[in-house]
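Same chain as my last thread, 266 residues:
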Amino acid sequence: MSMGFKNLIYILSISLLLGGCSMKEYKLFQEDKEEQDNITIVSEKEYKEEMVFENIIAPNDRVDITVYIQAGQGSQQMTSILTSRETNTSDDIQENIGLLVTQKGTVRLPLLGSVFVSGYTQDQASEFLIKEYKKYIRNPYVLVEIKNQRVIVMGEVRKPGIVPVTNGTMNIIEAIARSGDLTDFASRSNIKIVRGNLRNPKIRNVDLTDMSALSLSSLYLKPNDIVYIQPRNLKGYNKAFNEISPFFRMVSSILDPLNQRKTLID
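reply #2:
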């Protein structure tokens, strides 16, 4: 093989590799170039608010509502007269568990009929329903629990998907751990949290590799947050190499007979 032809193959290979390694098609939720690498700074006030955050009931939520009364006159034992609670203790999200909160923000309950619960925290909803049931029942106790609290973990984790929030709050480290940890191609320095209305989302960038950056950020998540682990540029090069490997094999299969013939002639 002539030196000029070798150089041509080398230049063509490099061009194909560099042309195919763009990460644009692999990365989601991309921002303006000036802002995409900026780590989000969270104020002390906002951080403290996130530490004490309580989720509120909203339309399309599913809630467990259990109503208790005293088992007998003078008894300290409580017995359930109404429950939507499931006996399944799995941490997996149950799409049909509990009562569905309607688009109007209501649930339908025995004795009370259609009751508005949207906008209440779990404790506030419990206190409200206790007052309502006191109109019909002596000394009721009501327990309300939101069942479909979750975050969505996408990108370079070993088990992407929906992660249930079972303790009311969750942080990024726990969400990643429940998703099987990061893959080898994961970017640790620019993890995105997508929050709020998806027509106009609020995006945070978190750097897990820099302790000083973490001290200015917040690892707390809210239900329905999307955690997106971006791929490193290495994934683009690896993908590009896999794409041009058939080209190398094809060129090699063409040139090998020519090389063998040239060797025999020489």
